[in-house]
Amino acid sequence: MSQPRQLDLEHFLPYRLSLLSNTISQAIAREYEARFGLSVTEWRVLAVLGRYAGLSAVEVAERTAMDKVAVSRAVARLLANERIRRSVHSGDRRRSVLALTPEGQRIYDQVAPRALEYERELLHVLDAEERIWLERLLAKLSGDGLEAVRRIPLPHAGAAR
Amino acid sequence: MSQPRQLDLEHFLPYRLSLLSNTISQAIAREYEARFGLSVTEWRVLAVLGRYAGLSAVEVAERTAMDKVAVSRAVARLLANERIRRSVHSGDRRRSVLALTPEGQRIYDQVAPRALEYERELLHVLDAEERIWLERLLAKLSGDGLEAVRRIPLPHAGAAR
DNA sequence: GCCTTATAGTTTCGGATGAAACCTTTTGCA
DNA sequence: TGCAAAAGGTTTCATCCGAAACTATAAGGC
Q1: What's the CA A77/C1' D15 distance, rounded, in angstroms?
Q2: Which of the ends of chain A has fewer CB neighbours closer than 10 A, N or C?
Q3: pTM of this prediction?
């Protein structure tokens, strides 16, 4: 993890993170896509509504880190398949109020434990001490780390395409 | 990091990893897209050829974890922009032999240090001990962890759509 | 009370993506 | 040799995605 002077994809932290993350996500996604025809975005909406019923589309977007276009499309498909229902917020007719249908709840109740099982199996290769460090490192990288990255100035706008 | 019984996206490891990884990758990608009009896939091909000239398309795919369709398209665009050149492998006319052009090398020489700078800034929020743990955890999760995940059996094919 | 601005959500449009089909060359082997 | 199977790449097709434009409602200033 000491900085190499040469860029080597295999040792490059962002690349390694991306590979790890994508491989895990795809493994889980493959399952609920096969069983329920859910896309990743649809599953995320379902997951957050399973936990917090009554959110608006924008609130769903905030909790899932999806943009509102993606949420809008996922919501449209979930509505079409009658996995969620939508009503209008009393007092603000722009806002929607989203919640699972019984069918949506049934799917959530099947997929959520499976997602947790993937996480459990992944963590199972770590011992107690390693899990504590993992939590700490994730928190630090996601907090201070991302903040530092966002502060990196763009190069002095000299040469360009 | 102790297993919750309830699925909560904010605390779900795969989701957190995905968010961290995507945020970092996008920060870097934004820069070389703006400066050189490179897509992520094109940059990955350029990066691996900058380090290992003469690879074939399949070898590039292996080193970048991209599928061969994505490599084929990235290679086509890089050729069109004269950032790489392609010849045919002597002795196996199916294989291509890819390498950077001087222009491709020039771009590589500008982007690679910037990519490393993002990594450096990210790691800068960690102290020496934390970096050692990060390396260890990444290796373990990417190795044994992914292997364990891949071994998870699909649910007993009962109910489904 | 108007009128500008902001917010919730949808649609459009151009490009990116992956699975599967496809073409070409090579390999394995009877 | 001759031929089936495999491997390197490309194309097709259907889907997905995000930025920007758009509609409708609400909030704020005067």
Answers
A1: 13
A2: C
A3: 0.89
